[in-house]
Amino acid sequence: MFKSNTKQYEHYAHGMRGRGWGYAFLDPPSNVDAYPGVCGFINENGLWVKICDLFNEKELKELKFGEFSTKSRELAEEQGKLGPLETNTIGRISLSAEAAAAVPGMPAKLGSVARYELQGEYGGILVCHDDVKLRRYMVKDPFRKWAKDNAKLVINKFEDVKKNGGFYVITSTREASEIRITCWGGRGQSVVIGISSEVDGAGKLSADAQVYVGESISGWHAPICKEGESKVPFFGGVRIDYHKLWPTTEKDESKWSGYRGDDGKFMVEDDEYVYDVAITTV
Fold first, then answer.
1. Distance in angstroms (rounded) separating the CA atoms of residues 149 and 182
2. Which of 80, 179, 226, 244 has the greatest number of CB atoms lying within 10 Å of its CB?
3. pTM of the shown model
4. Residue 60 confidence (pLDDT) above 60
């Protein structure tokens, strides 16, 4: 059975960062809970936890959060099929047809086949067998403003947000219904992946392309989707980071030094501590 631990999900997300698609989930959430316009956090197991939908006025009122407004329209774009997506610690070596034929599960005729080998201490590979759909809002400023305006309320209402260092507002997602993920800890692990057609320079496949995966020593995690559901392997958006500074009773607020928000940082407090808060994008 596939299991996620802190080291795995953090290393996986870091290794996928170079793609510029935002945060990569080792255990992708459902698009029912993770979609553009949603606020939430990643818990200690690397799992997405939804807090609220910024476009749902009832949810915001129940949590006593501030209102959200934007003129931005959500865009949905069918991105098509993609080839295997690996972390930056994995190397790719093309194989001959003869070598591929010796791999169990590989058909005789393939457009391309390669061995993916771990060259670092940890790595992972994502395979999407169906179309990957991109959903996004083109502007992040309204979401950034809401996150900043409600940063104090969120940390005071959700202890788990405080424990996990911050929260996100999602502005873009990439979704697919048939995915597999494998990951390794230990240099030299490898897997063979074959594709029925050639992969273009952007890593895209033809609509009828099939991807075949060989055996992986750690197995393949293939989350099951309900009818009409997709999984979200990547999301982008706005992140609020909290950094504990000093006990609330130690200094009067009028004597606080430091940032006041001009460069993306500001301060908030709960019943116990004052926090330095940074707004970043993912």
1. 39
2. 179
3. 0.89
4. yes
